[in-house]
Amino acid sequence: MDNKVYVTRSSMPSMEEYVHEIEPIWDSHWLTNMGPKHDELKNKLNDYLKVDNVELLVNGHMALEMSIQAFDFPKGAEVITTPFTFASTTHAIVRNGLVPVFCDINPGDYTIDTNKIEGLITNRTCAILPVHVYGNICDIESIHNIADKYKLKVIYDAAHAFGETYKGLGVANLGDASIFSFHATKVFNTIEGGAVCYRDAEFGRKLYNLKNFGIRDEETVEAVGANAKMNEFAAAMGVCNLRHIDENICSRKIAYELYSGLLDDCLGITINRINEMTTSNYSYYPILIDSKITGYSRDDLYTYLKAQGIFTRKYFYPLTCDFDCYKNIGSTNNLPVAREISSRVLTLPLYSGLASDDIERICSLIKTYKGN
Ligand code: T4K
């Protein structure tokens, strides 16, 4: 019997449901370039996320990269961001010819530490790019106050925060733009895919253009765009998965609460507490290991669980500023909390349909492990 458990598992509709959804594509022969499924998903997401403006893209990364491009920041301008994230966040800044300026994170929810942002602002700063990491919503009030004071754009990497609300407001409404990932590993997937929710109609027009080579009409190309369109098969997967999103989040919640109950009294293990103002999507289950108490390190536990067929992940280690490709990026010394969390965090398996037996086995392995 294969009793391997991975950090996540893609949510999928039944095969019959998906086949039914893609049948019209065989009649129309319309496979991509903003076809009917693309538009249907876009409209449905407008309703689900309660936003006025959604643009669909080929993946979350291009959603982020093209959003930054659509703001037309001057080359070499600085973007204040977090290093405690997936490679995509930092790459999207650098691939636009901009300079990431890394800010430390909070020890409680691992989002950007807003007390440390102002000290990083210079006359070259053009934007703040925070991440709602693991679906933990950033301190948006402070971020928006700083952005207003210094006239900076705010672009949220909301790749982990699909469908969440903060104080009753959908997170997709936050900032000048919020970017979502619909990758296979996410709470809501279109196989590969992403979206940008935004405020300004002119920004939306530019973004739409950029994702289609910058083409305005058959004879006019007005910007150096790329090809970042969502195809019809991906959109059809999204239409199906959106039908089941609430039950999937509910299943994740049950798994999340089972973990939290079982690990609550585990000495040396800190669990991620959800902010009471947030309705969570339960996208990840990070724990922090305090080796002074447990007697073993995060890496020891990772290796031990792997040997038992439990494939946890070190999301997010290393910090992006420590990647080989960013060795000469400038000062990255003042990130004590990010460094500490990154060296101690382990993300446990969490997905819709994860068996309670598996969660109990994982927690029992953690609770009985004494180190090597
Ligand atoms: N911003 C942030 C903060 C992000 O976290 C991400 C992506 C992005 C931006 C960019 O969005 P996208 O361009 O990806 O839409 C995964 C995902 O590929 C990536 O989307 C995600 N963040 C990141 C945190 O995790 P890997 O390299 O760890 O994935 P991988 O292939 O090791 O898969 C993890 C597990 O998921 C597997 O062990 C099994 C399961 N799985 C995987 C795939 C590919 C499935 O069940 N089905 C699948 O099809 O990056």
Description:
This protein has 12 helices and 17 strands. It has helices at residues 15-28, 36-49, 60-70, 87-94, 140-150, 201-210, 232-243, 245-263, 291-294, 298-307, 336-344, 356-368; strands spanning 5-6, 54-57, 78-81, 99-102, 125-129, 153-157, 165-166, 169-170, 177-181, 194-198, 215-217, 220-221, 269-271, 278-279, 285-289, 310-311, 345-348. Helix content is 36%, strand content 16%. The protein has a 7-stranded mixed sheet with strand order 2-10-9-6-5-3-4, sandwiched between helices.
Give the averaged pLDDT, no decimals: 97
Instruction: Tell me the radius of gyration.
Output: 21 Å
- How many E-type strands? 17
Low-confidence stretches: none
Taken from the alpha-carbon principal axes, the silhouette is globular
**Helicity range:** 25-40%
What is the succession of H and E elements? EHHEHEHEEHEEEEEHEEHHEEEHHEHEH
Cα distance spanning the termini: 27 Å
Instruction: Supply the helix-strand structural class.
Output: alpha/beta
What hetero molecules are in the model?
ligand T4K
Major β-sheet annotation: 7 strands, mixed
Strand order within the widest sheet? 2-10-9-6-5-3-4
Q: What is the helix tally? A: 12
Strand % is 15-25%
